[in-house]
Design goal:
With 295 residues, this protein is an alpha+beta fold. 63% of the residues lie in helices and 12% in strands.
């Protein structure tokens, strides 16, 4: 039984995540305060959505930090799974935020309040510029999966900032305050899309599901097709963290004497073709159950 060595990302490549999370969180607080003062539910909704983006950035940063912590006798795989727990808690909190926004939006529709359109326009425009800056920061190092995922969250927040800006412009030039709760409901849609995706990934990871985007059967066939491999069975694939995948399997060989070379070949194939770096394989010469067989 053999184990592939761990690979850990350095901290230098994640500075953009830390900085982007910091400025996004700071502006979310400013936007929430301005939205409260201006009676703008659209600004408050956008602030809530920016909070989801901050959480996504911090979760990505947390995953990168936890990935560097060495396994211990108490946590033999390390603490990478904490990322899924944090994502689950974050998703549930944001569902609560979305619910509060919806309730207040319907209240505003029944009893409209005066909204300071000029304040909404200025703050939403600054938020739009901030999102463009964050996307620029995340764009440097786009090869990193976590940064690309975080950039998708920020892109949805940019759309929410545009919705808040439109709300302020409509109120400023027409005085139609009903547009504020209407567009806040649109922002809730952006929040729910990001949050439900986050919850799905968190629950899937905690339940040790096969990582999204990977096919258990396809990987089993790829392994069984390597030279010297007769078949593969008891194949399992799961996530140790969002960026660290693990695999275990029993490998039936034509010749046990070739195991060392076959092991190296399988490890390289799994890492380069499927991104799986933590591999545990058990060589065998006979098997009772054949799940994946080579041609």
């Amino acid at each position: 039984m053999s184990h592939a060595p761990h690979s850990h990302a350095g901290t230098a490549g994640n500075r953009a995540l830390y900085f982007a999370a910091g400025i996004t969180l700071a502006y979310a607080a400013i936007e929430a305060g301005a939205g409260w003062w201006a009676n703008s539910l659209a600004l408050l909704s956008d602030a809530g959505h920016m909070l989801t983006d901050t959480s996504a950035l911090l979760i990505a940063s947390l995953g990168a930090w936890l990935a560097q912590r060495a396994p211990s006798p108490r946590h033999s795989y390390g603490l990478g799974r904490a990322e899924f727990v944090a994502a689950l808690v974050n998703g549930l909190l944001m569902l609560a935020v979305a619910t509060v926004i919806v309730v207040h939006a319907f209240e505003r529709m029944q009893q409209p309040l005066e909204v300071k359109g000029g304040v909404v326009v200025v703050v939403a425009f600054l938020g739009l510029l901030l999102n463009v800056l964050v996307l620029y920061l995340l764009g440097h190092g786009a090869e990193d999966l976590n940064r690309r995922a975080a950039a998708l969250h920020v892109m949805s927040d940019l759309l929410a900032s545009i919705a808040a800006l439109l709300s302020g412009l409509v109120i400023l030039f027409t005085g139609w305050t009903l547009v504020d709760p209407v567009l806040s409901l649109l922002i809730v849609v952006f929040i729910l899309v990001s949050t439900l995706r986050l919850l799905r990934e968190a629950l899937h990871g905690l339940m040790e599901g096969v990582p999204l985007g990977l096919s258990l059967s396809a990987i089993g066939v790829d392994m069984a097709a390597r030279a010297g491999v007769r078949s593969v069975h008891d194949l399992h694939i799961w996530s140790l963290s969002s960026r660290r995948l693990a695999l275990s399997a029993h490998v039936v060989l034509d010749d046990l004497g070739q195991w060392d070379a076959i092991l190296v070949d399988l490890r390289e194939m799994l890492e380069h073709q499927h991104g799986i770096t933590h591999v545990t394989l058990q060589p065998e010469t006979t098997t009772r159950v054949l799940h994946f067989q080579g041609g």
